[in-house]
Amino acid sequence: MENNKPNEVEAFVRMPDEAPLIAALALDVGLLVPDSRNNSDLRIYECGRVTLVVMPSEDDFPSISLHGATRWNSDVDFARFVAGALDCQVRCDPGSEFPEVSPYSNIFLNLQEGKETLVAWG
Fold first, then answer.
1. What is the Cα–Cα distance from 3 to 73, expressed in whole angstroms?
2. pLDDT tens digit sequence for 66-98
3. pTM
4. How far apart are CA 15 and CA 66, in angstroms?
């Protein structure tokens, strides 16, 4: 993983099973191994200096956060990767890539079927 810097990225992914996500991410970050010490509702996977945290939700959009040295520089970059790799609906904070959106608003970027739209959520 050249030119990767430590960061955190997060997306909310509508998916019935996280196995395809784990497989897709493993192609980029390496084999993600479940953390056997974890005893919470969170699911934690590790690969070297990269940690994946899956936080279940009641609205079918679990939070997927990746911490460590990865190639994704923003939530939007990460969400685009996940949506493309899994062909599923993904939402994320639009961040600085959409300067017209207030960082304090409930507006999220929704990615689905190759389209990106800003939606009110929550």
1. 11
2. 999 899 999 999 999 999 999 999 999 999 999
3. 0.91
4. 17
Under 8 Å CB-to-CB from 27, ≥6 apart: which residues?
A: none
DSSP 95: G
Tell me the C-alpha distance between 65 and 51, whole Å: 8
Q: Is the separation of the CB atoms in 42 and 26 below 8 Å?
A: no
How far apart, in whole angstroms, are the C-alpha atoms of residue 25 and residue 13?
13
In the chain, where the domains are located: 5-120
For β-strands 115-120 and 50-55, DSSP reports them as: unpaired
Give the C-alpha separation, 46 to 25, whole Å: 11
Greatest CA span in the chain, whole angstroms?
43
Which tens digit of pLDDT belongs to each residue from 44-55? Answer: 999 998 999 999
Residue 51 per-residue DSSP state:
E
Name every residue whose Cβ is closer than 8 Å to that of residue 7 and which is 6 or more positions away in sequence. 67, 68, 69, 70, 72, 73
